[in-house]
Amino acid sequence: MGPHPAVAAIRLAVRRVLHDVLNEHRASGARDEPLVLAACSGGADSIALASALAFEAPKLGIRAGGVTVDHGLQEGSDRRASEVAVRLRTMSLDPVDAVTVTVGRQGGPEAAARDARYAALDATADRRRAAAVLLGHTREDQAETVLLGLARGSGTRSLSGMAAVSGVRGRYRRPFLQIDRQTARKACMAQSLPVWDDPHNADPAYTRSRLRHEGLPALEKSLGKGVVEALARTAQLSRDDADALDAWAAEVGETVRAAGASGEAPVLDAAKLFALPPAVRRRVLRRAAIEAGSPAGSLFAKHIEEVDRLITGWRGQGVINLPGRIEVHRRCGSLVIRRRDEAAAEH
């Protein structure tokens, strides 16, 4: 008799990802056993992920480890992190790290916690020289991410949700993006694995929590049970489109440089920019702003739209200020993007 269907589903998803990691590791010329870490909070999704990694990795000649992050946001969080680490070790994961982080305030509580968590995961992966870190995001998580992107109105890339592969050198892998949350929970129940339900996930003070417990159920009630699947499918289609447009923008980026322009600050030809499709032009503008020093995480669609109007609705507008003390202005048919202190030095 085979494993429970839910257990079989999560193991298959993890096995496919591990095959990819192993092939990439060997293609790099390495001959040792790669280390793959499961990021685990103790919730059903990540416990199911860790259990599948522990089962599948040894069969492929892969070392399986784990890491749990203590955000320090709840009383007893340090004790819970230690308990999760012990649980991972009982699954025969090795090495296992419990990392404590300090959560700042920039971008709001959810964004600050996420930034601190990924910084800790990056540091642990670097220290352990891990080939990959597995994350337990499910199809519902993907649907929530798409809706949050839709609310921000940030375009196709924002609607593309979470990538199956992301991070430096493809470090982060998300095997469960096509698996629903209930399957992960059933897999834990079938294996008698204890799970912890984070109270923050039910706290209405957090946007994602409200979306999970109020927004998505309301959509499913109005539109039917296929909403989550449809949103996850939208994410993949949007990602494919965004990738293609990004590649196009990268190709044409150098062709729109103003003739005779010198220096490090991007100087772009306004007429050549005007001739591009809007989706490509805005990507070129975004890339140029980041090149000049504007931080990508603070550069929103509204900023790029303002810059775009220097091309499509030129009326003699003044300087456009971007995050990172970057300014953009139009001069003699060219778009100049540079740091504010560089502009001041010319005067």
From TrEMBL:
Domain notes for this protein: The N-terminal region contains the highly conserved SGGXDS motif, predicted to be a P-loop motif involved in ATP binding.
Per the entry, what this protein does is: Ligates lysine onto the cytidine present at position 34 of the AUA codon-specific tRNA(Ile) that contains the anticodon CAU, in an ATP-dependent manner. Cytidine is converted to lysidine, thus changing the amino acid specificity of the tRNA from methionine to isoleucine.
The entry's protein name is tRNA(Ile)-lysidine synthase
The chemistry this enzyme catalyses reads:
cytidine(34) in tRNA(Ile2) + L-lysine + ATP = lysidine(34) in tRNA(Ile2) + AMP + diphosphate + H(+)
User: Any idea where the tRNA(Ile)-lysidine/2-thiocytidine synthase N-terminal domain is?
Assistant: 36-214
Which residues of the sequence carry a binding annotation for ATP? 41-46
Keyword Transmembrane helix listed: no
**Ranges for the tRNA(Ile)-lysidine synthase substrate-binding domain?**
268-335
Where is this protein localized, as stated in its record? Cytoplasm
Please name the CDD domains in this protein's record: TilS_N
- What UniProt keywords are attached to this protein's entry? ATP-binding, Cytoplasm, Ligase, Nucleotide-binding, tRNA processing
Q: GO: which molecular function terms?
A: tRNA(Ile)-lysidine synthase activity
Where the protein is mainly located, per its record?
cytoplasm
Q: Does the keyword Transit peptide apply?
A: no
Give the family, as the similarity comment puts it. Belongs to the tRNA(Ile)-lysidine synthase family.
Q: Name one Pfam family in it.
A: TilS
Q: What is its EC number?
A: 6.3.4.19
| Gene responsible for this protein | tilS
